[in-house]
Amino acid sequence: MKTRTSLLTAAVLVVGIAAGPSVLPAAASAPAASTAAPSPDAALEAAIAGLPDADATAALVRVGGEEGVWHGSSGVRDLRTGRAADPAARFRAGSVTKVFTAAVALQLAEEGRLNLDRSVRSYLPDLIPASYGGVTVRQLLDHTHGIPAPDFPGTTVEEWYAHRFRVHDPRDMVRSATSKDPEFAPGERQHYLNIGYTIAGLLIERVTHDSYERQVARRVLAPLELRSTSFPGTNPRITGPHNHGYQIMRLDDGTTGLRDVSVWGATDGWAAGDIISTTADLERFTHALFRGQVVRGPLLEEMFTLPRVSDFRSGKPAAYSAGLSMKVLGGREVWGKTGGRWGYNAAIASTRDGSRTLVYSVNSTDAKGQGMSRTAENIIVAAYGRP
Fold first, then answer.
1. How far apart are CA 61 and CA 71, in angstroms?
2. Listed residue (348, 386, 380, 379) closest to 75, CA to CA
3. Which pLDDT band, with edges at 50, 70 and 90, does 41 fall under?
């Protein structure tokens, strides 16, 4: 396939906002028509054209691999100025963090410092109660542990927004979760939750006698030169250039509209969902991961092995491995991970042989809603085909 690179920019759009605009601005005009031959990746261009709209305010996409390379961006950096979205912007990648956490845990397993079949309680006896004594490290990573989610304040996006600066301690989250009854016996079902990766982060700290963040930096970020990837800690801001994220919610005047949610603490996610990155960094990470340059040898197969159990809620076959998930798209297996923080959706994906990779960031207006962002779904279908 012929390689083609296209950067789409939205027309300048000036919208005044305070806490957030009460109405969504009109979509920016489409990019000028090219005089070149029609692009083989026209579907990707169409997937992100016309932003901002009701679904998203910006989108950044990178497709790579042997089947062709395509880079694109659309939308605005912020609704106040209407400046075109920055294709090199940093963003919250949400649960893509889990891929980094799983990779470090598997590296430690390769070194003999973690045993995937050993109980988590044997490593963290001071934190994991006897009622969860049968949960293994592998079950943490593939979401078959049966530990329920911890309690968080609030039940609506408006209440969560009010608590956006609250600092959550990972040990307190684990205590909250493990004070409840198990959802199922370890290894019986699969339920995708953050808590397993919160515990995995604490496991990494226990066996290395170092912080989770430093271990990821030393083992993954530094070797791959991912210089724009970082962990925010307790800082609620995205450090460096970024496209603002917006969430539709009830505003202070009682109307419903978009609020700028770019500044929002991520300590509730930590090792399960707080990483900040760029599409270029995540593309480099994806290429290295699928080539066996991050997790080496037999342990890499843990990331491409689905447990033979059913999903806790739907009853469908398990879709999550250690760090990744799998979907059949366009008739072939595509492995990757999506993530969502308020105002931001992100994903990495690849065919198993690395022949086609995808990384995107979409500034969704309901990034943690029940369904997938329409823009994100269109990008995935354009890159790989339909399920």
1. 6
2. 379
3. confident
